[in-house]
Amino acid sequence: KSPIIEVKQLRTSFQTDDGSIPVVNSIDFHVSPGEVLGVVGESGCGKSVTSLSIMGLVDARTGKVEGEILFKGDNLADASEKKMRKIRGNEIAMIFQEPMTSLNPVFTIGQQLTESLRVHRKWGKKQAAVRAVEMLKLVGLGRAEELLKQYPHQLSGGMRQRVMIAMAMICEPELLIADEPTTALDVTIQAQILELMKDLNKKTDTAILMITHDLGVVAEMCQRVIVMYAGRIVEEGDVRSVFQNPLHPYTVGLIQSIPDMRVKKDRLYSIPGNVPKPGSQNLGCQFAPRCAHAMSRCISETPALTNHENGQKVRCWLYEDGKGAGIHDSAIS
Ligand code: SF4
Ligand code: MG
């Protein structure tokens, strides 16, 4: 299937006291109908700014979006706000993490659920309510007619997230952007919500961009994954290859920090150090300060994203020219 969205050399920068700083730095990716692409990285790696760029939600007074975001032939990177308003919540929908969700406390679930149908499709109240009930049932919420009259505070966190998914899916978007959709939920509810999204993805052929810091979510949901670090893609490939054979030292670290339920560890492994502040370091590999394999050239020369076996790509001097001994013998113990 040809991609529903194709992002080419996307670069989103923000004006600061130190000048214009790129938070997303020349990234490329695409998602096809029915496909779930994972975008993974720690907070501050640019993954949320990527989704805001696609949605046209980067404030033009402080931020600048360059490159191409081709959605059904149009470049959204330079689309007008009027056009974006037609697309948002209709052709491209978004689900946020619970604390950021935009369920409005003063409106009923019914009012909020039917709004996009009334705005984008000019549906009447009754017709929209019928569809809202259908959607609530589809996301596994019982007593749907009653729910329509309730307010967000009357629902549990898991129910609210189901409502958010129903809201996002009600106009049958071609692309769904899910930004940490289950992070705020407890483990059981998280599993249920992921299961639900997988199910909806199968039924509707909606393409999903799954943004998460959690590789467990990627393993559960995605076919392909891109790993972001400090605004750049450092590794990409199909999920099975990346999990079986992670190439970039950062990806190796992320995989080692997945909690393993079978082996109870005292403490979670985590990669020492933090994601650098955007723009703080321009030369060399951004990961070098945290990398156990850093060589002298890593400090002075920026590696490119190069092709590797099995369609994997990696941005690391250990794999120059698609060869490279890699790090597997020494890094994974
Ligand atoms: Fe580590 Fe060098 Fe590879 Fe960067 S380029 S990840 S510093 S080995
Ligand atoms: Mg984020």
Account of the protein in words:
- The protein has helices spanning 47-55, 81-87, 109-120, 125-138, 144-148, 157-169, 187-204, 215-221, 239-244, 249-256, 296-300, 328-331, and strands spanning 5-16, 19-31, 36-40, 63-71, 74-75, 92-95, 175-179, 207-212, 224-229, 232-238, 306-307, 313-314.
- 32% of the residues lie in helices and 22% in strands.
- The protein has an 8-stranded mixed sheet, with helices on both faces. A 4-stranded antiparallel sheet has the order 2-1-4-5.
- Helix 3 (109-120) packs parallel to helix 6 (157-169), helix 4 packs across helix 6 (157-169) and helix 6 runs parallel beside helix 7.
- It has 12 helices and 12 strands.
- The model is unreliable at 261-268 and 329-333 (pLDDT under 50).
- It is globular.
- The chain is α/β, with parallel strands linked by helices.
- It binds iron/sulfur cluster and magnesium ion.
- Residues 43, 48, 180 line the site of magnesium ion.
- Residues 248-249, 285, 287-288, 291, 293-295, 298, 303, 316-318 line the site of iron/sulfur cluster.
- One of its GO terms (cellular component) is plasma membrane.
- One of its GO terms (molecular function) is ATP hydrolysis activity.
